[in-house]
Specification:
The complex is a heterodimer. By secondary structure, chain A is of the alpha+beta class. Helix content of chain A is about 20%, strand content about 30%. Chain A has helices spanning about 35-45, 160, 195-200, 280-285, 300-334; strands at about 1-5, 10-15, 50-55, 60-65, 70-80, 85, 90-95, 100-115, 150, 180-185, 205-210, 215-220, 240-245, 250, 260, 270, 275-280, 295-300. The longest helix of chain A has about 30 residues, at about 300-334. Chain A is elongated. Chain A starts with a strand and ends with a helix. Chain B is of the alpha+beta class. Chain B is built from 8 helices and 12 strands. Chain B has a 7-stranded mixed beta barrel, surrounded by 4 helices. The two termini of chain B are about 40 Å apart. At the A-B interface, β13, β16, β17 and α5 of A face β1, β2, β3 and β4 of B.
């Protein structure tokens, strides 16, 4: 069991998300920084989709009642076990009664706590991820509170074998203040004036204070729309379209006044003009952005987006390989 | 079969590396919605490799796919073939659902007062505003007209259970309203509201910009699966269903609410196939015929 002593600012149970239900308006949810989360699970010997904790800005403290392993990945954050500083991106042993504390983030926005065996609250529609707006999944569809007790699964392999497992620093992403985000333009971008699309790609966008798991509102230049009559049923504002589906990562421009990038708890559809979609590989970067941070968008082709996706998978494959080699060396040394 | 506002050619576009957006028309058009629902059903039925799911929308659909299993361009070719194959909508499975609504209710009016500064005309209620912009002066007359025919569920999304309900009438008879000037940060759960040509019921409490005109006595989202009819489905709406809104008074509202709270409420649902071709030929006549059929099918 994991007993929550302090919940932190916003800590939720997440895994890799809930697919197949977008058509009822249920977004996937799941860890926003997919790479950091999967790497954390690999470090403690879990399947990549085992449920862990997503910690936002400021972390929880908790006590465990059984022996196990823990790794903390994602944002740079103060992390202690029994008041002793512990390294991130590394598997540490936990003993019954050990107390884990996470402080405030120093860099980035979201840290991931992965425990051997994973958090085993019951699945809803095939996932343990928390979707707060829909009060669904995780623990009663809400963020953690002091006094919550979370069940932990049985570790898949002997924890001793994985102690001290860590990653080559070249494989550890460092959260940036100034992000470079790649985007596939399109969808409703033909409604927007060409010079506004140029401005969109040239601007340095600032993350506003309205930035959460649903989406990030960005401040920057405004948009002009091509002249023309509004189609029947679209609504009077030129930024309105007849309601359509919004991909995860899609960028919408309500009123032409701001840009919103939708993330894993997205509203699944609506009536605002969408001008492009952030590539999956770069959604991890946005997950680590916080208000006041900046990002620039770079247009890429679909094949460049697919290539970036393969590169992210290749980095994870390197991690699997590296951890496999570590285990082998450990066994040889015995 | 395509009506005004339709583009000559369907547009296939990338929504990043995991989604495709397929747009049939920039304008809302029931005939197009019927056709795309048929196409979406066929995509699901064929279990195309790499396709995770398909999400129908009003005049478009979104496909979520795994690019590791299919290149998006190959998937576009498959979808284009499928579009050519399905030239018009076939019979659609459809359910007629009774939605009891307390119009002109105190809760949405209280909410409207809180956000008066974001509205076009805070001197009147949202209902009165909707009446005025559509040329009605009598509340009774407006509510009767508003509920005189079923609404087609052309799209489901936004948050779980939100359904875009389109009044089944020719475009020139559509009831229309602008959204709030600035969206509210709050809307009561189950508020019945209208904007553009669509009515919607808010599944959960939250932000919104539609004109609020009443309260549904019945929920459209049930995350705890407390109501027998929503067990395993979580939401009431399916694209292709028809909702019949029925004005009720406060006594009936309270009665239904207590049944919902007790978990014993049963929705009045009639399964009834829908024939888009017949509707397009003579909407009024076909709706009347469906209504007569349901009068027979009604549970005693």
């Amino acid at each position: 069991m994991l007993n929550v002593l302090e919940p932190g600012l916003l800590t939720t149970i997440q895994d890799l998300g809930r697919l197949h239900w977008y058509h009822i308006g249920m977004p996937p949810s799941g860890a926003l920084d997919n790479f950091a989360f999967r790497a954390g699970n690999l470090l403690v010997g879990n399947p990549e989709d085992a449920a862990g904790l997503e910690v936002t800005y400021s972390g929880p403290s908790f006590e465990v009642t059984s022996a196990g392993l823990i790794a903390v990945t994602g944002a740079d954050i103060a992390f202690t076990i029994n008041n002793q500083p512990a390294a991130q991106w590394r598997a540490h042993a936990l003993h019954p009664g050990d107390r884990v504390s996470l402080g405030g983030v120093r860099r980035g926005a979201r840290a991931y706590v992965c425990l051997a065996g994973g958090i085993t609250v019951s699945e809803r529609l095939g996932s343990r991820s928390t979707y707060m707006l829909g009060r669904f999944g995780g623990l009663d569809g809400r963020k953690l509170e002091a006094g919550d007790c979370l069940p932990l699964g049985t570790p898949h392999t002997s924890p001793d074998a994985m102690l001290g497992r860590t990653l080559d620093s070249a494989l550890i992403p460092v959260p940036q203040k100034e992000l470079e985000v790649r985007v596939v333009m399109g969808m409703c971008s033909h409604r927007v004036a060409p010079e506004s699309l140029r401005d969109f790609l040239a601007a340095n966008w600032e993350v506003s204070t309205e930035a959460d798991r649903i989406g990030y509102r960005l401040k920057g230049p405004t948009f002009e729309f091509n002249a023309g009559e509004q189609p029947f049923g679209a609504g009077a504002d030129p930024s309105n379209v007849v309601d359509l589906g919004y991909p995860i990562g899609s960028i919408q421009i309500p009123g032409g006044l701001e840009a919103i990038v939708l993330l894993n708890d997205a509203v699944t559809g609506g009536g605002y003009t969408t001008i492009g979609t952030v590539i999956t590989a770069d959604l991890d970067l946005i997950a680590q952005a916080s208000p006041g941070g900046h990002m620039r968008f770079h247009e890429v082709t679909i094949n460049e987006a697919l290539q970036a996706r393969r590169e992210r998978e290749a980095r994870l494959e390197l991690i699997r390989l590296e951890l496999g080699l570590f285990d082998q060396a450990g066994m040889l040394g015995q | 079969m395509e009506q005004g506002g339709a583009m000559s050619e369907t547009r296939y576009d990338y929504g990043g590396d995991e989604y495709l957006l397929v747009v049939f028309s920039e304008a809302m058009d029931l005939a197009i919605n019927f056709k795309l629902l048929s196409i979406c059903r066929e995509i699901e039925r064929r279990r195309i490799p790499g396709v995770i799911e398909v999400c129908p929308a009003n005049a478009s659909y979104l496909v979520h796919f795994r690019p590791e299993e299919t290149h998006p361009d190959a998937l576009i070719r498959t979808l284009k073939d499928l579009e050519r194959e399905i030239r018009s909508a076939e019979t659609l499975p459809s359910r007629l659902v009774d939605i009891p609504v307390l119009f002109d209710d105190p809760w949405t009016q209280e909410c409207a007062k809180r956000f008066a500064d974001r509205h076009q005309d805070p001197s009147v209620s949202n209902l009165e505003y909707l009446m005025r912009v559509n040329g009605y002066s009598s509340k009774e007359e407006f509510i009767t007209a508003y509920c005189d025919r079923p609404y087609w569920i052309s799209m489901v999304g936004f948050v779980p259970g939100t359904a875009w309900c389109y009044r089944m009438c020719p475009p020139e008879q559509a009831i229309q309203a602008p959204k709030y000037i600035r969206p509210r940060t709050d809307t009561p759960e189950r508020a019945v509201a209208h904007a553009g040509v669509f009515l919607c019921i808010y599944p959960v409490q939250g932000p919104g910009g539609y004109q609020m005109i009443g309260m549904s006595a019945v929920p459209v989202y049930d995350p705890e699966e407390r109501l027998p009819d929503l067990q395993g489905r979580y939401i009431l709406a399916s694209a292709g269903d028809r909702w019949q809104f029925r004005p009720i008074d406060m006594d009936e509202y309270r009665d239904i609410r207590s049944q919902v709270e007790a978990g014993s409420y049963r929705y009045r649902i009639i399964e009834q196939d829908f024939h888009p071709g017949e509707y397009m030929r003579d909407p009024e006549h076909y709706l009347k015929r469906l209504q007569e059929e349901t009068a027979h099918a009604e549970r005693p």
